[in-house]
Write a structure and sequence with these properties.
Layout lengths: L8 E5 L3 E6 H5 L11 E6 L11 E2 L3 E6 L11 E6 L9 E6 L5 E3 L3 E6 L3 E6 L4 E6 L1 H39 L5 H7 L1
Antiparallel strand pairs: 1-2, 2-6, 3-5, 4-11, 5-11, 6-10, 7-8, 7-11, 9-10
InterPro entries: GAIN_B (IPR057244), GAIN_dom_sf (IPR046338), GPS (IPR000203)
Protein name: Adhesion G protein-coupled receptor E3-like
Main location: membrane
Length: 187
C-alpha cells in the first residue's frame, strides 16, 4: 500500500458554497499520515432562524472537516466562497461558530477577502462551522456609540464633582461664618 500523501489543490462545492484548500492543509503533517485523507463540506439548509435578531444570516451555515487533527492553526488558510441568500446583501461579515462559553458567532481568524452583491470570499485559519452575517457591523457601531456616550457622561460627572469640591473649598476659605460640616451637609 502506497503511503504517499496526495498533494495539490482541493475544491469542494455545493449549490451555495465553495471550499478551496490543499491536500497539505487537509492531511497535515506527513509523518502522521495514515494512508488516507478526507475533506468534508457540510451545508445546513435549516439553520437560518437560529441566530438572534440583531445578526442575520446572509448565507447558509457550513461545517468544514478534514483528516488533519490540528484544525485550530492551519498552515494555509482555507478559502470559502459563499453565495448570498439575497442578492441585495451587502456589508456581510465572515464568521465562525465559537464554542467558548455558551457559543456565539465570532470573527476571530476569518477575514473577508472580497465581496459583491451576490458572493463573499472568506479566508479562515481554522476549521469550524462558518457563515456570513449581516448586521454585525451596525451592532459594533452601536456598541461603540453607547461606550463613547457613557464615557463622556462619566467624564462630565467627574469634572463636575471636582469643580463642586473646589468651589466648596473656596467658599469655606472666603467665609468666616458657618462651619465646614454645615456647608458639606447643605450640599
Amino acid at each position: 500500500m502506497d503511503r504517499t500523501p496526495p498533494r495539490g489543490p482541493v475544491r469542494l462545492t455545493n449549490e451555495n458554497i465553495q471550499l478551496d484548500t490543499t491536500w497539505e492543509t487537509a492531511i497535515g503533517d506527513d509523518t502522521n499520515y495514515p494512508g488516507f485523507g478526507f475533506a468534508i463540506l457540510l451545508s445546513y439548509k435549516s439553520l437560518q432562524t437560529l441566530t438572534n435578531s440583531s445578526e442575520q444570516l446572509s448565507s447558509r451555515v457550513v461545517t468544514v472537516s478534514v483528516s488533519n487533527p490540528n484544525t485550530t492553526n492551519l498552515s494555509e488558510p482555507i478559502i470559502l466562497t459563499f453565495n448570498h441568500l439575497k442578492s441585495s446583501d451587502a456589508n456581510t461579515t465572515c464568521v465562525y461558530w465559537s464554542e467558548d462559553g455558551e457559543g456565539a458567532w465570532s470573527i476571530q481568524g476569518c477575514t473577508s477577502v472580497k465581496s459583491n452583491s451576490t458572493h463573499t470570499v472568506c479566508s479562515c485559519t481554522h476549521l469550524s462551522s462558518f457563515a456570513l452575517l449581516r448586521g454585525i457591523q451596525e451592532n459594533k457601531k452601536c456598541r461603540q456609540l453607547v461606550m463613547w456616550a457613557g464615557a463622556s457622561v462619566a467624564l462630565a460627572c467627574a469634572v463636575l464633582s471636582l469643580l463642586m469640591t473646589l468651589w466648596c473649598r473656596f467658599i469655606s476659605k472666603k467665609s468666616n461664618g458657618g462651619s465646614r460640616p454645615e456647608q458639606h451637609f447643605n450640599l
